[in-house]
Specification:
five-stranded antiparallel beta sheet, 1 helix, 40% strand
């Protein structure tokens, strides 16, 4: 799955590559991992919860969303669309998002790769509503299509994540269509939705293009908020900023941090891979690229697993720190920015094994979901 670097190499992920202003990884911070679940799940790939809700909602890549209540994994799924989901290559049920007004409208947006025989599937987002009789189940009959992005070139680099931004818009990250080295030429094509971060307004179903979306040369205005991404498997918003972890090709893994309101950015793939010139020319004449705040080489990992800025109460010293990991080396690192300079720290003697994703609960605590089906909470040492 090149959600990560390449399924052929185990679960390839992305890594950050160091921008010229970033520091070395030499500042340890004290956390440990607490096992929340050690069995009962199948390839857990996303963990979310509505704000202030004590339950954990965990997506399984084969197509189910499960509920953990009172520390117990419930036998009935929150949603089961496994009959519609393909798991070939890097596909699967990849993420889901609770509407900011979930407590009143009960809307959940589910992001998956649909099984279409004879193809590599399409990237699909659908809206469901919670059951009126059971808060631990979505009403399958309430399904409303939101957006579909054809992804017919290869079965890797789907991206991605669906999430609401601070502006109330729905964002969706999509990979560059797969293969290698942007071979299908989607990432720099503003007319394509692959290799992009999309922004749509779902207040009018299924959606409308927000007036503030950028106008692209020779294309006009469309759903694309940013271009030039390779495989942005995870991104996160915090305090008016957007953090994107973009999986690299063969050399660098990167983290991009920009203002959440900055539209029309080009993150450079495959002209650049992290801070390295890839296809060139570098710099490209007449084209402004947004460089990562931090990237790292493949001596430190193989694919970055993007996470969240810590906003929980249990580890106050981590407030404002962006936590992330790597598919191959399983470290837990934090990144902070001050005056545009990234400082990266690593938790000593902490290794998650093979992480598939990070998640965040309703109180801002952060979790790691692993390839051996564990759910681990990052806690104070």
């Amino acid at each position: 799955m090149r959600i990560w670097h390449s399924l052929a190499v185990g679960l390839g992920v992305l890594l950050p590559a160091a921008c010229g202003k970033s520091t070395s990884v030499d500042l340890p911070f004290a956390v440990q991992l607490q096992q929340v679940l050690g069995s009962g799940l199948s390839s857990p790939i996303d963990l979310q919860a509505p704000s202030g809700d004590s339950r954990l909602f965990i997506a399984e890549r084969p197509g189910r969303i499960r509920v953990v209540q009172g520390g117990v994994l419930q036998t009935t799924s929150f949603l089961d669309i496994s009959s519609r989901v393909t798991v070939q290559g890097e596909a699967g049920l990849l993420s889901f998002a609770f509407h900011p007004q979930y407590s009143t409208n009960g809307f959940v947006y589910v992001h998956f790769i649909e099984n279409i025989p004879g193809t590599t599937g399409d990237i699909v987002v659908e809206r469901y509503q919670v059951s009126s009789s059971d808060p631990n189940q979505l009403d399958a009959s309430s399904v409303q299509p939101v957006i579909r992005i054809p992804h017919r070139d290869a079965n890797n680099h789907y991206g991605g994540r669906v999430a609401f931004g601070p502006d109330g818009m729905l964002y969706l990250s999509a990979g560059d269509g797969g293969g290698g080295n942007n071979q299908f030429m989607h990432a720099q094509d503003a007319a394509s939705h692959l290799g992009k971060l999309l922004r749509i307004d779902v207040s009018t179903p299924p959606y409308v293009i927000p007036a503030g979306n950028p106008v692209w040369p020779n294309v006009g205005q469309n759903e694309n908020w940013a271009i030039g991404l390779r495989n942005p498997f995870r991104y996160a918003f915090d305090a008016g900023q957007l953090y994107i972890a973009d999986v690299g090709q063969d050399a660098r893994e990167e983290i991009d941090v920009v203002s959440a309101s900055a539209s029309g950015l080009n993150y450079g793939w495959n002209i650049m891979e992290g801070t390295l010139c890839s296809a060139g020319p570098c710099p490209p004449p007449g084209l402004a690229l947004t460089a990562p705040v931090y990237d790292y080489d493949h001596n430190q990992g193989c694919a970055i697993i993007g996470g969240y800025v810590y906003r929980g109460a249990a580890i106050p010293e981590l407030q404002g720190q962006y936590l992330f990991s790597d598919l191959c080396t399983g470290f837990v690192r934090s990144l902070s920015l001050q005056n545009g300079v990234a400082t990266v720290s690593e938790a000593p003697n902490v290794n998650v094994g093979t992480p598939l994703s990070l998640g965040q609960d309703g109180f801002g605590e952060i979790y790691v979901l692993t390839a051996d089906n564990r759910v681990l909470r990052i806690v104070r040492q």
